[in-house]
Amino acid sequence: MDLFRSEDMNLAQLIIPVESAHHAMTYLGELGLFQFKDLNSDKSPFQRAYAKQVKRCGEMLRKVRFLKDQLAKAGIPVSKGTLTSKEIDIDELEVKLTELEIELTSINSSSDILMRSYSELLEFQLVLQKAGMFFYSVQSNARAQQRELEESSSFRVEESIESPLLLEQEMLKEPSKQARLGFIAGLVAKSKAPAFERILFRATRGNVLLEQVPVEEPVLDPATGEKMEKIVFLVFFSGERAKLKIMKICEAFGANKYPFPEDAGKQAQMLDEVSARLLELKATIDAGNRHRDNVLSSIASDIELWDSTVKREKAVNHTLNMLSVDVTRKCLVGEGWCPVSAEPQIQDALQRAAYESNSQVVTIFQVIKTKEMPPTYFKTNKFNGAFQDIVDAYGIARYKEVNPAVFTIVTFPFLFAVMFGDWGHGICLLLAVLWLLFNEKKYSSQKLGDIMSMAFSGRYVILLMSIFSIYTGLIYNEFFSVPFPIFGSSAYYCSDSTCSTAYTTGLVKTQSAPYVFGVDPVWHGSSTELTFLNSLKMKMSILIGVAQMNLGIFLSLCNGLYFKNDLNIWYQFVPQIIFLNALFGYLSILIIVKWCTGATADLYHVMIYMFLSPTADLDANQLFPGQKYLQITLLLLALVAIPWMLFPKPLILRSRHIKESQGHTYNMLRDSEHDIVDLDHENDETDQEEFEFSEVFVHQMIHAIEFVLGAVSNTASYLRLWALSLAHSELSSVFYDKVLVLTWGYQNVIIIIIGFIIFAFATIGVLLCMETLSAFLHALRLHWVEFQNKFYEGVGYKFSPYSFATMDEEE
Q1: Helices 771-781 and 405-420, axial angle in degrees (round to 10)
Q2: Which of 186, 313, 453, 768: disulfide with 448, CB 3.0–4.6 Å?
Q3: Segment 608-613 long-range contacts (CB within 8 Å, at least 24 positions apart)
Q4: Residues 6+ apart with CB under 8 A from 700
């Protein structure tokens, strides 16, 4: 079984000629089965041999990202490229990327300048139109008023409407002191208009006239390049000081000012010029955009291929930096871990690299013997990979340690289903996950959101969860809390034909044979329903918990036998299995005996007085002959198991350490100076692994106390199976009775539809989402804490090979 223990690993050394190093790294990256060790960890990234190549690839990646950003802005779809047999020359690609970046940068720069000019002219056109309409309307009103005055008066008005009102005073003043009314026109953001108006009046003390005309559509701002709502303003003022203040306020508010002639003829002429210039700029901008789109369209099919090529090139050079250069600088020396089963493939890849690079020297592949702990590697697929991820989230298995994922494939969805048991809800989950499986290829190539990504990656976990939920739902006989007599007739009957007393007095058994499969449907709705189901599910939770904890302890035996650790077998496994089963294994046997015999013994009383008064008679609580003496024996075994776990192992380790240290002192004599140097090195290693009896004893004491207390707390923790199952059943019953059935009784179509909608949303939101997440988390805790702490250390490190496939998935 490949998943039961991790793959056999070897530490290998590669001696690669420089001329074939690049090809070798490329083939090893495609193979993805070799994890390199960094032999240059003492050097900074800039001191390594291939630092320039890595920097060069980083610069090329920046250019590729720039091109992808331009494609995204232009809205041009990017097609997925595939690596062909023809390799892309990295030097030619670098030149091409540089040329494309320069060309697109130039196009963008020109386009930005043209767009800024276009935006300014467009705003100028709006000012000419809106302000011109204002002046025209004012002059028209003035002429109309003048005609009315002439018609109503007996004399003719000789002055023009454009002449000053105080003409005589103006004529008496010097030309430099004549006060002339000026104005400033422009555009300001609509959101800033109230503050703009307020500041103008405060700064000039109300000596201005402000006219505002809103622009119907958003305008592209020349400064920011963003579309925003604006208004055209006209500020009339008198005096140079007022003009300077208004100019500064316009700059502070980011208002764009434009020249506006007073003469109507000049206004029309300027408007025609601006309109013609806008048409020219529009044509130029469109031509530039077409040229840019043509350039981008030509690279859209190759950009992903370039991206992948540059990333691979960077990964190759980054890996080459982890290799050490020999003295002659003709070979690179690398070390790393690889599965034993992959050694032929690795050697074949190295031979192909030497052949394609025309190297005269082949790459040397040799296995190194070491005491260093290898990485942990499991061959997984899309089905069991999610279960392995659940285990790895707790901790990576130590090399060759028993892998809990093998058992998690069955136990995790089963414990979930015990808490979620309802075959109606299980069918809903099954339909949802079948949709994910049906669209597996579609979703696997898309970038999904966080929640959807988690659901899709765990689709096979959800599949088994739904199947097991249907199974346990059939056992509980619950379909959205409604029982169905699927497996034959009931073994009980009601005392009257209407079955009305079933809710008050319970049920009467009519046949000795029980219901064929699962809970008898007639229990649902009876007065003894809650008592019966509580007792059933609570005892079932204890049986499941004790069985799974025993499995965990037996897996620790498997670890002890594999690693040939006699101390763990005799002074950890044996006392643990005795202690757990002397108490809770015995409780499980009592539960089964009570079920089989139909006895009325109080198991709470039996277990409590097993400790408080072990020699007292059991009386009505006795289930079989000799039970009292068996309980005394089991209690003594449990008490003996505690010091058995605590004292022998530290004492034996101390004895072994003393013997080993004496053996080292007897080997002090050496014949040569070289041997004495070796001895000093050995003594240094021995000093580093100094034995501390107090630390070992304290560690063992903590371990023993943790197991003794954990045996009680972990067994109680499995009662969550009963609690969540009961909560799920009662919530489902409440939604059915108080929503669906209640609204159905009104015999009104609208009320029934509303009730069904509320029932559907409550079922999906609470039972299928929140309850699913709750049961998932509780099942996760039972595996991580109650099950895995019996045998699983999880102190290893994961096999992380140098692989192009992993690099692409991470991106």
Answers
A1: 140
A2: 453
A3: 610/635, 611/635
A4: 645, 646, 649, 650
pTM over 0.85: no
Mean pLDDT of 70-93: 76
- Round the average pLDDT of the chain to a whole number and report it: 86
> What's the gap between Cα 109 and its chain centre?
39
Report the percentage of the chain scoring pLDDT > 90.
50
Binned at pLDDT 50, 70 and 90, residue 507 comes out as: low
8 A C-beta contact, residue 646 and residue 706: no
544, 718 in Cβ contact below 8 A?
Answer: yes
Which structure tokens are listed for 560?
């002890």
| pLDDT of amino acid 666 | 47
Burial degree of 415 (CB within 10 A; 0-12, 13-18, 19+) = buried
Calpha distance 130→111 (Å, rounded): 28
**φ, ψ of residue 362 in degrees (nearest 5):** -85, 160
Alpha carbons within 13 angstroms on the beta-carbon side of residue 633 total: 6
Contacts (Cβ under 8 Å, ≥6 apart) of 808: 308, 311
Which one has a higher pLDDT value, 683 or 190?
A: 190
Number of residues in the chain: 811
Burial class from Cβ neighbours inside 10 Å (0-12, 13-18, 19+) for residue 556 reads buried
- pLDDT band at 180; cut points 50, 70, 90: low
For residue 416, which of 489, 469, 375 has the smallest C-alpha distance?
A: 469
Q: What is the pLDDT of residue 533?
A: 87
pLDDT in tens, 643-696: 999 999 999 999 998 888 876 554 444 444 334 334 333 444 444 456 788 899
- DSSP codes, 546-593: HHHHHHHHHHHHHHHHHHT-HHHIIIIIHHHHHHHIIIIIHHHHHHHH
Identity at 45, one-letter amino acid code: P
Q: Is 189 helix (H, G, I), strand (E, B) or coil?
A: strand
pLDDT of res. 85: 39
Percent of residues, the chain, with pLDDT higher than 70: 89
Alpha carbon 114 to chain centroid, angstroms: 44
CA distances from 364 to 13, 16, 24, 336, 398 (A): 8, 7, 12, 14, 30
What is the dihedral angle through the alpha carbons of 159, 160, 162, 168, rounded to the nearest 10 degrees? -10
Any idea of the CA torsion for 344, 347, 349, 352, to the nearest 10 degrees? Answer: -120
Cβ-contact 292, 104 below 8 angstroms: yes
Distance CA 75, CA 72 (A): 5
Q: Which of 619, 628, 625 is nearest to 600 (CA)?
A: 619
Q: List, in sequence order, every beta strand (DSSP E) within 260-415.
A: 324-325, 331-339, 364-368
Residue 391 identity (one-letter amino acid) = V
* Token pair in block for residue 523: 């229990």
Average pLDDT over residues 400-426: 95
Residues 6+ apart with CB under 8 A from 693: 650, 653, 654
What tokens does 387 get? 């279960």
Spatial distance between the Cα atoms of 635 and 632, rounded to a whole number of angstroms? 5
What is the 3-class SS of 665-688, one letter each residue?
HHCCCCCCHHHHHHHHHHHHHHHH
Lowest mean pLDDT among 324-333, 725-734, 781-790: 324-333
Q: Which amino acid is at 617?
A: D
pLDDT at 243: 87
Contact 426, 809 (CB under 8 A): no
Rounded distance between C-alpha atoms, residue 739 and residue 753, angstroms: 11
Region 452-475 average pLDDT: 94
* 739 class by beta-carbon count within 10 Å (0-12 exposed, 13-18 middle, 19+ buried): buried
